[in-house]
Model the fold of this input.
Amino acid sequence: MISNKCYYALKATLELSRREGSGPVTIGEIARAQEIPARFLEAILRQLKQGGYAESMRGKDGGYILAKPSDEIRLGEIIRLFEGPLVPLAPANTTDQEMGRGKVFFELWEQAEQALAAVYDDITLAALRARDDVLQQEIVNNYTI
Done:
């Protein structure tokens, strides 16, 4: 399960990707466009900045931009920044793994993590933005009164 914080981080980076090359985007603009509480967004953008995924610019025309091109940022990177490992692999009773009794479960969890990583690490922000553009266009085209 992905936390709201991680979900908002994905939405914020999607918005920064959408505005890539247009200069800095303010917290208010991101918050309005993606319906994210602005105060919550401040902390998320700080964490994205510390993780090397966003840069901030001060001043009248300041705001945030992506720290690297959107086709070089994979969703799995953002998810791991906010959530840690994709699948927690170590239950409290680690002696089971050490003794070999829980090996079947550990193998299963490793397979689950590999499957999730294959999906999340295969998608860049640029690809996600392109998918979103198509979906948004479909919504507009299907609008009837």
Remarks:
- The longest helix spans residues 103-120.
- The chain has one domain: 4-141.
- Strands lie at 54-57, 63-66.
